[in-house]
Here is the input.
Amino acid sequence: MSRPRRPDAERTPPDLDAAMDIAARFLGTRPRTRWELERRLKRAGANEEDLGRVLDQLSNLGYVDDTAFARWWAEQRDRHGPRGRRMVEAELRQHGVTSDILESLRGEEFAEPGLDADPLPRSEVERAAAALARHLKGRPLPAEFRARQRIGAFLMRRGFDSETVRDALRKAASESTPGGSTPEPDGFRDEGP
Here is the structure.
């Protein structure tokens, strides 16, 4: 049962130990970025000096690491709701991950390979294929042009670029059609010369 909240005027600012306790409870549910913890401690009324000391101590202990958070977030996305790199980066920005960290992770996969038997997607096309498979829920890829366009639009809303979407749809079409592919397997008409 949660305790009733006191109005801000009655609340006393937490001391260093109380601020550390607030941060520890906040970190207890999932990893957090430095920005998220800072916002939480400011909302609790921690003063700037204690806030900085708590964040520095947690960083030194390894509990606050924005690069590790970015990798964790991407792994969760790959495992539970695959999205394109563009969307994952946008989500990370919303959690306060800086552009410097995102730039340092460009050119490599965010998520590290899983240690369990369930392998994670290793490329954008594999991620798009996983998102497509989750969307179709075992149904075959529809043959109708408009239906494939809608599925392509779904994948693009998930943060995949158009070329990745085409590749994923072509691959799914070739796997669902006996003997190969249909004339327009991806649902997009190619602009010929």
Q: What stands out?
A: DSSP finds nine helices and no strands in the chain.
